[in-house]
């Protein structure tokens, strides 16, 4: 049994504005959400949705994960950056060096993302959403490989990466040093049990792999809040 990655969720002070930004950058469609948030449906092989969920909490500190968007040429990279800026992004400095070929931006709510140059070999066979790049340990990379049933496609010097057998973006973890966690993450995964499984069995399996159940206050009915071995929150949804 493995879990299915259903969505990447953003906590958003203005879910509509944030969802329109990412829909414009990625070329995805907005869809009705049965809950309070707004859902974006992928128009490519990404394999999971984006959900923007309402919150009153303001962003503090750098996110634990961010998108790496790919480019086919320098002109393509410039066009992606220009489109993002037109939609409400801004340039930010997170310590990148001048010689690095990626452009670091923040969306309208300050969530970091990168537009990668065309010569990046690691993401060469990925689509426009090349990777979800995460701050995390080797252990957490192994955990998510087992949780999702996605094979490791990189495991060197405590850096790990996994990718769905069906393609789509990679999920990467940069290894030590891992920044200390200072509060609830702005982004988290929504998982669903496999078609043959149920929610409680999936929760028990994830606990056996190293996850923990957590209580973060009021939550939607049918969602179990958990944390991976690095303490990053995620949700397990009720069986569909």
TrEMBL record:
Domain VOC residue range list? 125-239
Q: Quick one: where's region Disordered? A: 164-183
Give the matching Gene3D superfamilies. Answer: 2,3-Dihydroxybiphenyl 1,2-Dioxygenase, domain 1
Organism equals Streptosporangium vulgare
One of this protein's Pfam families, by short name? Answer: Glyoxalase_6
Q: Organism's domain of life?
A: Bacteria
Q: Report the protein name in the record.
A: VOC family protein
């Amino acid at each position: 049994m493995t879990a299915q990655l259903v969505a990447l969720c953003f906590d958003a002070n203005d879910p509509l504005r944030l969802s329109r930004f990412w829909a414009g950058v990625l070329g995805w469609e907005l869809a009705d959400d049965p809950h309070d948030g707004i859902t974006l449906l992928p128009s490519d092989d990404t394999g999971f949705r984006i959900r923007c969920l309402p919150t009153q909490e303001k962003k503090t500190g750098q996110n634990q994960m961010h998108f790496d968007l790919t480019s086919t040429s320098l002109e393509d990279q410039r066009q992606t950056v220009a489109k993002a800026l037109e939609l409400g992004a801004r340039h930010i400095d997170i310590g990148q060096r001048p010689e690095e070929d990626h452009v670091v931006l923040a969306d309208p709510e300050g969530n970091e993302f990168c537009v990668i140059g065309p010569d990046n070999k690691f993401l060469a066979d990925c689509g426009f959403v090349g990777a979800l790049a995460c701050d995390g340990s080797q252990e957490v990379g192994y955990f998510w490989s087992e949780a999702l049933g996605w094979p490791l496609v990189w495991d060197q010097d405590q850096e790990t990466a996994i990718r769905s057998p069906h393609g789509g973006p990679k999920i990467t973890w940069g290894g030590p040093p891992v920044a200390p966690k200072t509060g609830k993450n702005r982004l988290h995964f929504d998982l669903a049990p496999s078609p043959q499984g149920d929610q409680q069995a999936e929760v028990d399996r994830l606990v056996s792999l190293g996850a923990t159940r957590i209580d973060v206050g009021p939550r939607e009915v049918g969602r179990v809040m958990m944390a991976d071995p690095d303490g990053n929150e995620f949700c397990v949804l009720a069986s569909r």
